[in-house]
Amino acid sequence: xxxxGCASVVRHPLIGTPRPSLVRPAVLRYHHGMxxxxxxxxxxxxxxATGAAGSRVAARLADSGQSQRxxxxxxxxxxxxxxAEAAEASYEEPEAMRVALAGAETFFMVSAGEDADRVRQxxxxxxxxxxxxxxxxxYLSFLGASPEAxxxxxxxxxxxxEHIRASGVRYAFLRxxxxxxxxxxxxxxxxxxxxxxxxxxxxxxxxxxVADAVVAVLLGEGGYEVVEELSRVTGRDITYHAETLxxxxxSRVSYGAPGWEVEGWVTSYSAIAAGEMNxxxxxxxxxxxxxxQNLPEFLRRYPESCQHLFPGNPVNRDDSSPPG
Length: 324
Ligand SMILES: NC(=O)c1ccc[n+]([C@@H]2O[C@H](COP(=O)([O-])OP(=O)(O)OC[C@H]3O[C@@H](n4cnc5c(N)ncnc54)[C@H](OP(=O)(O)O)[C@@H]3O)[C@@H](O)[C@H]2O)c1
Prior knowledge:
Blueprint: E1 26-29, E2 42-47, H1 52-63, E3 68-72, E4 84-88, H2 94-101, E5 104-109, H3 118-132, E6 136-142, H4 152-167, E7 170-176, H5 207-218, H6 226-234, H7 245-251, H8 259-273, H9 283-288, H10 295-301
Parallel strand pairs: 1-4, 2-3, 2-5, 3-4, 5-6, 6-7
Helix pairs in contact: 1-5, 2-3, 3-4
The structure holds NADP nicotinamide-adenine-dinucleotide phosphate.
The site of NADP nicotinamide-adenine-dinucleotide phosphate has 21 residues, from helix 1.
């Protein structure tokens, strides 16, 4: 391992500015047999930190005082950020990735550069994160990720999401649209944008806004875990059991409901698994002029909604898993 250690944190006054000629972040280099014990714990590991999106995320995390490990393919190009250290690894190097991710709580994973083999690279990176003991993966995905997406690269994102879903770690997917930053580059030197887009429209998003949204999720402002919030409010350990379809039908038999109804209940969860219920929209704010409620606020307004979860409460039910 370069430098014989890993823990020193480089502080630099020029926050967020990549300055290759100045002080480098502490660099971790994997070599065979290196013990993960020697790596310090960090709340965040950020990949793609030499790229446009990842560097913006890393700079914003540094600005908010977070320590982080930058997962880069070349430490000489890692941005100098206060509280950051760099670890060299590529997605297709499972052991280097495992070491680079050891001790990181959350892995912010930028999708790799387009490649015929990209899904395999992503799968290897996710497996390495799981092996390293990462608790949460926040993956930069793409709008409309689906196995049949018209945009073939969006299919890669869906396959990656599927692998993350099955991995057992907590996750969040940010399905950004085409970067606004790309639109000017679509015009050729002759001043013509060429492409079979017909009369279609695109709702593009700036990388700056993507990075702001990613950091909101990383720092917990834009998302929360249902079980964590219910546990916090009830003072009880609320858990999630990822049922198989068979288990799901079996555990709802006791309601005595007709088949069509049970199927509706079960498939409401299947739709969540398929990513069909994770569309975040600004429609409530636009139409009503106020921000939509989130779960913490809902529970504050309607504390009775989780009364059945309080231990010893007379309305406490063993079968409290609601239908649907
Ligand atoms: N939404 C859109 O319009 C749009 C447009 C283009 C691309 N994308 C996707 O979004 C991702 C992020 O966008 P961006 O603008 O930040 O792209 P970018 O500037 O090209 O940065 C990509 C980053 O990912 C790293 N990387 C690529 N392949 C890797 C691998 N196999 N293992 C480890 N690291 C790898 C690169 O490292 P190096 O610096 O070492 O190359 C770089 O840091 C892209 O990688 C691409 O998948 C989205």
